[in-house]
Amino acid sequence: MGATASQLEKDIGHEFPQNEHYFGLVNFGNTCYCNSVLQALFFCRPFRERVLGYKPLSKRKESLLTCLADLFGNIASQKKKVGVLAPKKFVARLRKENELFDNYMQQDAHEFLNYLLNTIADLLQGEKAKEKDKDKHSSTSSVSSKSSVSSAGTTNGGSQQNNKTEPTWVHDIFEGILTNETRCLCCETEAQKRMRVKKLPKILALHLKRFKYMEQLQRYAKLSYRVVFPFELRLFNTSDDAINHEKLYDLVAVVIHCGSGPNRGHYITIVKSHGLWLLFDDDIVEKIEAQAIEEFYGLTSEIQKSSESGYILFYEARG
Q: Which family does it belong to (predicted)?
């Protein structure tokens, strides 16, 4: 691995960005689905900054988020610019929390991404609820000596608020808002219903449907359709009242599935960092040219053939 690391530094040369680190991740038998998503998220700048800045309520309680923060912090604090790290603690925690990932079968990268983000959001909401309860109890204690009516009102107000789940920074980064619109095409005769985007997310994560259940095969098969994903993207299906509807997105990461089916094959990731394109294949990191990304669009023929094709696209809002 030392030769690979030194080669990467040579390939990047004087272009190597300050305070940036390009570290491969060790594969523990079948964890390329995990490594590929973690690399993509690390190079989604808003997400990385939030994870690195996370302070848990209890330092003694381990969670998937504390393990992720430790991993990201370990990468960001390395003295070397390139190398390899083993995400042992994170993978162990993942397998402990969800039996779906506690085996040596290939898993789906998109399922893992959803599970990770939902788990982090649930954890953050739980911490917010605990902090609110703490504030509520201290507030109730301070007013109880003055008025029992006032105290009851404070308690009721607090309990009503707790029924609502507040958005977290995960929602703030990844969640947009869709709105239903019904437009009359010809009055009283026909209407068109459509979904439009009302609020654009900071990170737009797009999942390409690459697997379909084939009745004749009695299993899922890969769809290797050619999908050209642009380096720059603007969403045109925004609602009239959308905020900053002209927002432009830049492609920052692509999780790629290599192989012929969801339960076999391999995942790799390409990322854009400070104008450089890099390919992360578990513990191997290589600099690639922008035009090489065309190889991951998919196939124009034999769509059920094995291929290396884009599976999850990550776009970051500009500005």
A: Belongs to the peptidase C19 family.
DSSP 194-205: EEEEEE--SEEE
CB atoms within 10 A of CB 221: 18
Contacts 24+ apart (CB under 8 A), 17-21: 17/273, 17/274, 17/276, 20/81, 20/273, 20/274, 21/75, 21/76, 21/78, 21/80, 21/81, 21/82
Instruction: Extract the tokens encoding 311.
Output: 């599976």
Please report whether residue 190 resides in a domain: no
Consecutive 10-residue runs of the chain (319 residues): their mean pLDDT? 72 91 96 98 98 90 97 97 97 95 89 97 93 68 43 37 72 77 61 67 92 83 90 78 76 95 89 97 97 93 79 94
54: CB partners within 8 A, 6+ apart: 65, 66, 69
Q: Going by C-beta distance under 8 Å and a sequence separation of 6 or more, which residues neighbour residue 187?
A: none
Query: Residue 201 and residue 137: Cα distance in Å, rounded?
Result: 35
Cα–Cα distance for residue pair 228/269, rounded to 1 Å = 16
Angle at 283 between CA 86 and CA 304, to 5 degrees: 120
What is the tally of structural domains in the chain? 1
Q: Give catalytic residues, as residue numbers.
A: 32, 266
Alpha-carbon distance of 68 to 120, in angstroms, equals 10
pLDDT for the residue 40: 99
pLDDT of residue 164: 59
Picking from 317, 315, 316, 295, the residue whose alpha carbon sits closest to that of residue 307 is 295
What does pTM read for this prediction?
Answer: 0.84
201 neighbors 220 (Cβ within 8 angstroms) = no
Q: State the CATH number of the domain containing residue 285.
A: 3.90.70.10
- Supply the pLDDT for residue 184: 65
- Which domain does 115 fall in, by range? 20-130+167-178+202-317
